[in-house]
Design goal:
The structure is a homodimer.
Chain A: H1 9-20, E1 25-27, H2 28-36, H3 44-57, E2 60-63, E3 72-75, E4 88-93, E5 99-103, H4 105-118, E6 121-122, E7 128-132, H5 134-138
Parallel strand pairs in A: 4-7
Antiparallel strand pairs in A: 1-3, 2-3, 4-5
Helix pairs in contact in A: 2-3
Chain B binds a DNA duplex through residues 3, 5-11, 27-29, 41-46, 48-50, 52, 67-71.
DNA sequence: TTGCGTGCAAAGGTTTTGCATGGCA
DNA sequence: TGCCATGCAAAACCTTTGCACGCAA
């Protein structure tokens, strides 16, 4: 699916970084910084272009968290385009800013419901919920 | 709640525009364009600053749809900070780009579930779902 | 008169793009 | 050798900010 016509050193570097970060999220800048000191820094454009490809390929997911901050990416391993994989969602806490992974069958239920009753095929990989996380709710003395 | 120390003509203009658009979404640019021809154009900064105030006041909701496109706003009338109002969500179609309003009790259910079982207070006013809308699903011949 | 609101223009940050070069096949 | 990928720098985009002026109270 990806037009990986050529295989380059930069691609490999990026992929190994992605595998390291599996289960977490990172920004384009994180990638840049990660390679900055090394003898093989990656150009900005390269990073963005490679990430874009991986997103198109479904191996990477891009989250728009906030227009002020950079986009977050998450490596999802191999292609998940068929959406048969786990439905985990992300929740961004509006208070502490944490990006929380949420695995919940209730969400699977919602996905089914939307599909069957509204004709909508939800993309859990891109959807970000906003709200207040457990921790912040508990610390909520004032506001 | 809003620090409406002064009342200005621009504020009134903006508010009447917002009331016109109730139930739809618009961008800062939409506002700008709406007043562009008129004898009372609004400055960019003014628009953003006023919108920001209204968001802080809870009378306006801001959606981050896509970092490439401008933020979407929606007028919610009076303050909805207590979130006792309707829980309608937005769904952004990844194919046609439409931003769809979705009123569904299943979503209310989800809100309750997240609160009771995960301690998460979802903010429907900011949450945007991504997926493929009904129309696009039906037109889905290729891809 | 006081000081907030306005508006222009410039700055800010992230992401994209043009173009010449480098490297894979 | 052919062509994609790279990387630098510049551009693009939306949004914010500085500053002087205007206007509400």
């Amino acid at each position: 699916m990806i037009k990986a016509t050529y295989k380059t050193r930069q691609q490999d570097l990026l992929l190994s970084f992605l595998k390291e970060t599996a289960g977490t999220h990172f920004t384009a800048e994180d990638v840049k910084k990660h390679f900055e000191g090394s003898e093989n820094p990656l150009g900005n454009a390269t990073i963005y272009r490679q990430l874009e490809k991986l997103v198109a390929d479904g191996r990477l997911v891009k989250y728009v968290i906030d227009e002020k901050s950079a986009a977050c990416f998450e490596y999802t391993g191999e292609s998940v385009k068929d959406d048969s994989q786990t439905h985990h969602f992300h929740i961004k806490c509006e208070k502490c800013g944490a990006l929380i992974h949420l695995d919940c069958e209730e969400l699977d239920h919602l996905v089914s419901h939307l599909k069957e009753n509204h004709g909508i095929t939800l993309n859990p990989l891109r959807t970000v919920f906003y709200g207040i996380c457990d921790k912040c709710s508990k610390n909520e003395t004032s506001n």
